[in-house]
Amino acid sequence: MSKPLILVTNDDSIVAPGIRTLISVMKEIGDVIVVAPDSPQSAMGHAITINNTLHIDKVNLDPDLEHEYSCSGTPVDCVKMAVREILKRKPDLCVSGINHGSNSSINVIYSGTMSAAVEAGIEGIPAIGFSHVDYGWHTDFEPIKKYVKKIALEVLHNKLPEGVVLNVNFPKAEKTIQGIKVCRQAKAMWMEQFDKRTNPQGKEYYWLSGEFVNQDKGQDTDEWALENGFISVVPVQFDLTAHHAIQIVNNWDL
Amino acid sequence: MSKPLILVTNDDSIVAPGIRTLISVMKEIGDVIVVAPDSPQSAMGHAITINNTLHIDKVNLDPDLEHEYSCSGTPVDCVKMAVREILKRKPDLCVSGINHGSNSSINVIYSGTMSAAVEAGIEGIPAIGFSHVDYGWHTDFEPIKKYVKKIALEVLHNKLPEGVVLNVNFPKAEKTIQGIKVCRQAKAMWMEQFDKRTNPQGKEYYWLSGEFVNQDKGQDTDEWALENGFISVVPVQFDLTAHHAIQIVNNWDL
């Protein structure tokens, strides 16, 4: 049997330790093609580049790989480029990450890592976004490699339900991993504080910052899992219809 | 009773005819505050600005308005700025648009217009994104103003279920409006074609382009509604958990 074809991307850029780790794991289970951003694209959500040009460059950061490309666009652009322009056939799996920082809970919606996985899902490709709660550039990914491999193999084996991709987050390195937990995303949000400063010309500007607030006490959430040392796996959908609300709005006087 | 406080934003920038129309309608029903991008932000999805600074400027395009601001960020940044930095209290309604171009079906996920509405929803603000299928800058919004007003008033009156915002699209101007239809988003996608060109220095670059493909024949979809002259209203959720898939993935050997 031929090896599975695996597309690897991320949002921290092609040189990030997280994607290099992900590539090393995927090489053990399939033929790997990398198409990843040439610069950091964190928090780009599902943005695509329509008002600017796109560039791709063949690179060779990993001498084992024949097909490795850096792209000037967003993570979603990378997936579109890979599928339409670079790949000869639809890949068997798309993996995105390993993100340097959490994409649990509401963060899934801001995340370039997860948006790349979602875009692959829209294309009908089984897809997984991997993120590590520790956001440091020098996070030790070694202890989680076996779990990344296990989850990828399970997705290749079982496929995913139509319209679903996986959002996988790894707990802080200081926690002993208790196992893998399939969860719902916690109902949480960011309380932003804008840090107001003055530039050398005297004009005010802001930096977005803030505090993550989780008021969801459920033990079936990704936040609970991560807090308790579990790897969280949330099935994520991209049909955004709130089906339960259709009847409610239908009862209005529209 | 005091008038409702209404936050208005968009993704086509603060000078777009679509948002100026939306402002004119909202002034009839409430106190209006505008915080909108200072440049076009189409297809920015749920992107936020974390690796760059943000600027806001008080502007006065509409002499009736005391509070009108242009912001250097994305549509989602605009909502965050409005809620955390500009507004004294939580608004009663947030409206985004009127977008110059369709945000029906899968386009909701790429749309800056809808991401602004979703961000307001995350903040617990009743929110609506309005889009017109005609993408021209000089689209005649006059015939749809009464529907924009009606839908906004209904949301103010009924509120929205928790975790739900509305995605409203108006059909092509050439169609006679048949009424308002509450729908699900059609299962459709973009088949991209990258237009490959060569720059003056001989280097290749690409423009993203493509064709929208709808293979969803359902008559309960937004695409069907728009095609048949209805205004489509899709309730949209931002909890992305695919709840139905949790049990499926739980049965895997993880």
From TrEMBL, chains A, B:
<feature type="domain" description="Survival protein SurE-like phosphatase/nucleotidase">
    <location>
        <begin position="6"/>
        <end position="191"/>
    </location>
</feature>
<feature type="binding site">
    <location>
        <position position="11"/>
    </location>
    <ligand>
        <name>a divalent metal cation</name>
    </ligand>
</feature>
<dbReference type="InterPro" id="IPR002828">
    <property type="entry name" value="SurE-like_Pase/nucleotidase"/>
</dbReference>
<feature type="binding site">
    <location>
        <position position="99"/>
    </location>
    <ligand>
        <name>a divalent metal cation</name>
    </ligand>
</feature>
<dbReference type="InterPro" id="IPR030048">
    <property type="entry name" value="SurE"/>
</dbReference>
<keyword id="KW-0963">Cytoplasm</keyword>
<dbReference type="GO" id="GO:0008253">
    <property type="term" value="F:5'-nucleotidase activity"/>
</dbReference>
<dbReference type="Pfam" id="PF01975">
    <property type="entry name" value="SurE"/>
</dbReference>
<keyword id="KW-0479">Metal-binding</keyword>
<dbReference type="GO" id="GO:0000166">
    <property type="term" value="F:nucleotide binding"/>
</dbReference>
<comment type="function">
    <text>Nucleotidase that shows phosphatase activity on nucleoside 5'-monophosphates.</text>
</comment>
<dbReference type="GO" id="GO:0005737">
    <property type="term" value="C:cytoplasm"/>
</dbReference>
<keyword id="KW-0378">Hydrolase</keyword>
<dbReference type="InterPro" id="IPR036523">
    <property type="entry name" value="SurE-like_sf"/>
</dbReference>
<comment type="similarity">
    <text>Belongs to the SurE nucleotidase family.</text>
</comment>
<protein>
    <recommendedName>
        <fullName>5'-nucleotidase SurE</fullName>
        <ecNumber>3.1.3.5</ecNumber>
    </recommendedName>
</protein>
<keyword id="KW-0547">Nucleotide-binding</keyword>
<dbReference type="GO" id="GO:0046872">
    <property type="term" value="F:metal ion binding"/>
</dbReference>
<feature type="binding site">
    <location>
        <position position="12"/>
    </location>
    <ligand>
        <name>a divalent metal cation</name>
    </ligand>
</feature>
<feature type="binding site">
    <location>
        <position position="42"/>
    </location>
    <ligand>
        <name>a divalent metal cation</name>
    </ligand>
</feature>
